[in-house]
Design brief:
CATH architecture of the largest domain: 3-Layer(aba) Sandwich
CATH class of the largest domain: Alpha Beta
Strand content: 15-25%
Largest sheet: 7 strands, mixed
Number of strands: 7
Shape: globular
Distance between the termini: 47 Å
CATH superfamily of the largest domain: Vaccinia Virus protein VP39
């Protein structure tokens, strides 16, 4: 299996521009994947430094091949929620910019055997770090209410209950092991009219991926850590791919920009709270041209915040 990550990152130019790169600054690409964003950051750096993080062992291998010779780059295999420890271990106090792209890389989707995609038959896996609980573990061991809850919350799937019921019924006969087995079960649980509305498995697969990788539960703390690691004037840019992620980002950014919290009737401020950050712009979404070229980008949103204190 070739390791070519053919990943055209979504909102690519907007994201790189949002970091306002200082050629001598220090930047962290929290989700480096195949190194698309990293390469573009490096093009703008002179004596600066780039830390590439990714929890996927295949991505780490690709990054080491691609940037291994470049003295300005440090590649670390870890989840981005661990950014503070990584910087501490490298003796870096604060950085000029942090980027996180919360999407699954096209490589992970296109490597059939990783089990992220409902377009090819493969073991039901979906683990970004390739360790721990897999999607097969979730569908075969979670109770019916737990499954329905995961599929409804993380997939925003309105047929979550009937899908959960069908999964539990199917696994009584035999363990559910592949992506196509699961897709057939999902289809059997949905009315015909729902089939016309995009791929019937899309929302359930998204929900399982989020559950398996603990993506949403870790996100608020991770955003806090990334923001904390910035210098004053530094920029944090995050690309999210569905409404739940985006609202987690939005809520955190709102906290950072929150100023005085005194009741309106107070004549003067006594809380002394001033904003820690300022939004660089309102959320950006892909252009019509980009949507046509890359339909996967349809739900993407870029948000960016500058640290004030």
């Amino acid at each position: 299996m070739g390791m070519a990550f053919k990943h055209i990152p979504v909102l690519f130019n907007e994201t790189i521009d949002s970091l306002q790169i200082n050629p001598d600054g220090v930047y962290v690409d929290c989700t480096s994947g195949g190194g698309g964003h990293s390469a573009a950051i490096l093009e703008r750096l002179e004596n600066g430094r780039l830390i590439c993080l990714d929890q996927d062992p295949q991505a780490i291998e690709t990054l080491q091949k691609r940037f291994g010779e470049d003295k300005r780059v440090t590649v670390v295999k870890t989840n981005f929620s661990d950014i503070k420890n990584v910087l501490q271990n490298l003796g870096i106090e604060a950085v000029d910019g942090v980027l996180a792209d919360l999407g699954v890389s096209s490589h992970q989707l296109d490597t059939a055997e990783r089990g992220f995609s409902f377009h090819s038959d493969a073991p039901l896996d979906m683990r970004m770090s390739m360790q721990g609980m897999s999607a097969a573990d979730v569908v075969n061991t979670y109770s019916e209410p737990e499954l329905a809850n995961v599929i409804f919350r993380y997939g925003e799937e309105k047929y979550s209950r009937s899908i959960a019921r069908a999964i539990v019924k199917a696994r009584e006969k035999k363990k559910i092991e592949t992506t196509f087995e699961l897709t057939d079960i999902i289809k059997s649980a949905m009315p015909a009219k729902a089939m016309r509305d995009g791929h019937p498995s899309r929302k359930t697969f998204q929900a399982l991926r989020i559950e398996v990788n603990g993506e949403l539960s870790r996100l608020p703390d991770a955003i806090e850590s990334m923001f904390d690691c910035l210098k004053v004037g530094g920029v944090l840019s995050i690309i999210s791919f569905h409404s739940l992620e985006d609202s987690a980002v939005k809520i955190k950014f709102k906290e950072f920009t929150q100023g005085c919290t005194c009741p309106k009737e107070f004549p003067v401020c006594i809380c002394g709270n001033t904003p820690r950050g300022a939004l660089a712009f309102r959320g950006k979404t892909p252009s019509a041209a980009e949507l046509e070229e890359n339909p996967r980008s349809r739900s993407a949103k870029l948000r960016s915040i500058v640290k004030l204190k």
